[in-house]
Write a structure and sequence with these properties.
alpha+beta, single chain, globular, 10 helices, five-stranded mixed sheet
């Protein structure tokens, strides 16, 4: 009997029996249960029987979701039409855009989409939630992420002139420079921990705007913008991203790879007619953030300073990198 299978790199429909060790999954079981129905568990294998189709997934390592194909994650967020975009606030920050046909715009990557005929582009920054965790560990361990988020929300847009460049691991788009270094610029006696927290949110949003601006200069557009990843749990951070980018961002109810894999499995067993049907029936928006015109104008002024500071510090960054080797 055919089987819908989730592997480490893709979801596919097999016409022949597969070996148990060909499949790997984690929290996907819960998402599939919500979409497909009953699960039967035996010998650490999850079996989904739907007519002539069997779905198998083995519960294994916990970091599977970070390695599953990005196209499944993007699809699960509901980005299924040309012009749909997404911002991912995860270990790294990523900007996606769905395109009609392949869009070759080096150094922006382009991949096939789940929907036939569509592709999606991806560009990203090295440090996003990883920088968030780094600052939490250094300055906010007693309060944790929740306390850090509350403090960030208590500060006005612009952090009273405190800037953060999130180049803690060098940078990818749009600079492609592994010698860049992170920094906080503009410290005064008026700044406290809350300013550091907000400046980090804003600095990552500026880095994403920097990368997005480079793609827009290559002719790309973002008609809609979903926000996904662990950082998207913060309403404060979501609003900052909207205000910095000057675009509405929407939060999908399910924005992880396991949900997208569940939808694709549902298509494979005939539960959904096609990808558009799966998205229409299962992908919901639970929050929307319109950019504040006042905040966006203020952030645009600060973004110019952010970029000027970055350019002015390139040589210093390179010298420090070489000194520390």
């Amino acid at each position: 009997r055919p089987a819908v299978v989730i592997t480490k790199s893709e979801v596919r429909l097999f016409d022949a029996p597969m070996a148990p060790d060909e499949t790997v999954s984690t929290d996907v079981s819960r998402a599939v249960l919500e979409v497909l129905g009953p699960i039967f568990k035996a010998d650490n294998m999850w079996l989904f029987a739907q007519g002539e189709i069997e779905y198998h997934a083995r519960i294994t390592d916990r970091d599977f979701l970070s390695r599953v194909a990005n196209h499944v994650e993007l699809f699960g967020a509901g980005a299924s039409m040309a012009g749909d975009g997404a911002v991912k606030l995860a270990t790294a920050g990523v900007i996606y855009q769905v395109t009609e046909g392949p869009l070759v715009r080096p150094p922006v990557s382009c991949y096939p989409h789940i929907v036939e005929g569509l592709y999606y582009t991806a560009t990203g920054i090295n440090s996003c939630a990883s920088a968030h965790r780094w600052l939490r560990d250094q300055m906010f361990e007693p309060e944790g992420f929740a306390g850090m988020d509350e403090l960030a929300g208590s500060v006005q847009p612009g952090s009273e002139g405190l800037l953060f460049h999130p180049y803690l691991q060098g940078e990818r788009a749009p600079h492609w420079d592994n010698k860049l270094r992170g920094d906080f610029v503009g410290l005064t006696m008026n700044h406290g921990r809350a300013h550091f927290a907000r400046a980090l949110y804003e600095g990552i949003a500026f880095a994403l705007r920097d990368a997005m601006t480079a793609t827009e200069e290559l002719g790309m557009r973002y008609d809609t913008l979903r926000i996904i990843g662990g950082g998207a749990r913060s309403a404060t951070w979501r609003q900052i991203v909207a205000d910095v980018l000057g675009k509405e961002v929407t939060l999908p109810a399910n924005g992880d790879a396991s949900f997208g894999a569940a939808l694709l499995a549902g298509i494979g067993i005939g539960r959904f007619g096609d990808p558009a049907d799966a998205v229409a029936r299962c992908c919901r928006v639970v929050a929307a953030h319109e950019p504040s015109p006042t905040a966006h104008e203020r952030y645009s002024l600060l973004f110019d300073i952010y970029r000027d500071a970055q350019r002015g510090l390139v040589e210093i960054n390179h010298r420090l990198h070489d000194f520390a080797r």
